[in-house]
UniProtKB/TrEMBL annotation:
Residues 1-22 form the signal peptide. The keyword Cell wall biogenesis/degradation does not apply. Residues 32-51 are annotated as: Disordered. This is DUF2155 domain-containing protein. It holds the Pfam family DUF2155. It comes from Kordiimonas lipolytica. InterPro entries: DUF2155. Keywords: Signal.
Length: 162
């Protein structure tokens, strides 16, 4: 059993490596964090909001439960909320650089930890950069969350028009 956990931990550590080139550009992204209960708008003058960047309507996240070593990939539509354990995840923006530039993905996330009495505590609010997950990480004792990518999902043909 411990050998299996060691392999998972090793695969996890290997998966985080190799981001040094893109990390050089990540220093241009302003970081927004706030305490519990304070809502802030995403900064509009950041590298993520550059006019050449492509906006998407789904952010792809990877979440880790440190207790069970369970890794889950979450596709979160912008403006909607998803749950992972006691975390409530909400994406506000997801942008990628155009194909002619070095690849980079920026996502503005709001993450709340929901307590037993349904009280919410804001544990993260700000920009996450896919190539540099340690630049502005979620600091939680049980869970880790990283941005992987942004996607555009077209509405289905059967969907009713608003």
């Amino acid at each position: 059993m411990t050998t299996g956990l060691r392999h998972i931990a090793l695969a996890f550590l290997i998966g985080l490596g190799g981001h040094s080139v893109a990390a050089q550009d990540a220093s241009q992204v302003p970081i927004q964090k706030s305490g519990a209960g304070t809502a802030q708008e995403a900064p509009r003058d950041s590298a993520a909001d550059h006019p050449d960047n492509v906006a998407h309507n789904v952010v792809v996240l990877r979440a880790l439960d440190k207790i069970t070593a369970r890794i889950t990939e979450i596709e979160l539509p912008i403006g909607e909320e998803a749950r992972f354990g006691t975390l409530a995840l909400k994406a506000r923006y997801c942008r990628t650089r155009p194909p002619i530039e070095p690849p980079e993905t920026f996502a503005y996330l709001e993450i709340d930890d929901i307590k037993r009495d349904e009280e919410r505590e804001r544990v993260f609010e700000g920009w996450m950069v896919a190539s540099s997950p340690a630049l502005n990480p979620l600091e939680h004792s049980v869970y880790d969350v990283w941005v992987i990518n942004c996607r555009t999902v077209e509405p289905s043909v059967d969907a009713p028009n608003p």
